[in-house]
């Protein structure tokens, strides 16, 4: 077959750049809507002013800059991080049901937060960011250690995660039963949302997100090789243990920072990779950015719908994202018969 | 020993491999002759797959060493080894939704790093692998939609894209029907002829091994019992010794290779 025909074929079938651009455009529109819509009405002019020529004397602009913008940035970052972490873990474990929460990260973070509330009386969100981050990272480290470290098989890793999560949840229930203050903290924190996000929290956490994204980038090609089986990956010159550790590091950084930022947001890390794979095929360097954009979009949309009048302005983004994402997943399963999941 | 004048880049030097409770390879030495097609045969559980995996540094050795270009293979960077030696494990897995091109591109992994971009060399190697295996027209098909023979060819194309001089294949004909087995082995023969690459593969079928290999190695209980050209190796005595199978060996009337007819 002549080379130009092959090039023509490639051009006709490779719609990946277009998909990325289009979803990015949708994300920008969603982001603008998230800044524009809310309890306090603002105009497009206020929005333009707040973004380009911030006027501290204008209350509408203050609402946009001080309340909606940090909230939007947090939703973008959290959604993207969960989408990428979910894609990495499903690729690494070759399990379409894997979710960053299965590695004990969410449960570990919850123990950190409730433990801090119970033992130290810490209740301010800014304070328990570190507890959540540390608890999540420790939980994941324990799961990797129990799962066999660098030699961990995917199944063992997920089983260790399930066991440790059950153990952590039992601890949390115990603590919550013993102290009313812990219960209040937990009840509020466990839903997951962006009500208390400030630029201060974001400033604390961004290095972790950034490091996680870099690790994900470095791990991407290795995961593609690992997806062909460990023997094939070794044959391709991949250090399998090192690749798994790097991938695990990326997952832990991204998801424990997210749980510190917004609480345990369930389901996004599970669903978004399926959405991305439905349009992107298997190539981590394309799949992960796509999952990042989809995750960010889903999170912003969930937050937007959740605080709309439809739900009395009080539905947490973590609840809403599971609701919207669940519907999308059902549609994907029905459309493909579950074959591609 | 391999006959004089043949170089051997890949050698096993008195290697031993133990699985828990039982030795699999027992101080086994073997040279893989350069530029030839070598077939490793033997009964089930004789250690032939383990030998191939040890040669490809997939299974660590308990004693002795495998050397590639005179250096111990496990002392070399795995990525460097992967630029000289490709291994196709037995029945490899592919994730769903992978196209032929996606798979073959992954053969370029050892030639890339986090910083280097997909280069013209990479594209040329992938293109060459697709052409050699006759898969160019199917580049954009999903692996799952291919026949077993085509899928196996796609995996071989991935190994070819690795652009190595040494190609190790672990039972490449498993699960293929006879026409596809012949097609695949003829492809391997052609690759060896066209590119001069060294091939070492584990095969079950003695008659196919005798027809398509230059050099045969017969294993029993973790030791090399016979090696040489097919006509040197495939004899009534060997079949009795290795497989305990009484048989007659005739000369294949079409190709002249030794042919086993079980009694």
TrEMBL record, chain A:
Keywords: Cell membrane, Membrane, Transmembrane, Transmembrane helix, Transport. Pfam families: FecCD (PF01032). The keyword Signal does not apply. It is a multi-pass membrane protein. GO terms for biological process: siderophore-iron import into cell. It is found in: Cell membrane. The chain crosses the membrane at residues 18-39, 72-89, 101-121, 128-149, 155-176, 197-223, 243-272, 284-302, 314-333. One of its GO terms (molecular function) is transmembrane transporter activity. The keyword Cell inner membrane does not apply. GO terms for cellular component: plasma membrane. Its main location: membrane. Belongs to the binding-protein-dependent transport system permease family. FecCD subfamily. This is Iron ABC transporter permease.
UniProtKB/TrEMBL annotation, chain B:
InterPro entries: AAA+_ATPase, ABC_transporter-like_ATP-bd, ABC_transporter-like_CS, P-loop_NTPase, Siderophore_ABC-ATPase. Residues 10-246 form the ABC transporter domain. It is found in: Cell membrane. Gene3D superfamilies: P-loop containing nucleotide triphosphate hydrolases. Keywords: ATP-binding, Cell membrane, Ion transport, Iron, Iron transport, Membrane, Nucleotide-binding, Transport. One of its GO terms (cellular component) is plasma membrane. Its main location: membrane. GO terms for molecular function: ATP binding; ATP hydrolysis activity. GO terms for biological process: iron ion transport. It is a peripheral membrane protein. It holds the Pfam family ABC_tran. PANTHER family: IRON(3+)-HYDROXAMATE IMPORT ATP-BINDING PROTEIN FHUC. Belongs to the ABC transporter superfamily. This is ABC transporter ATP-binding protein. It comes from Aquicoccus porphyridii.
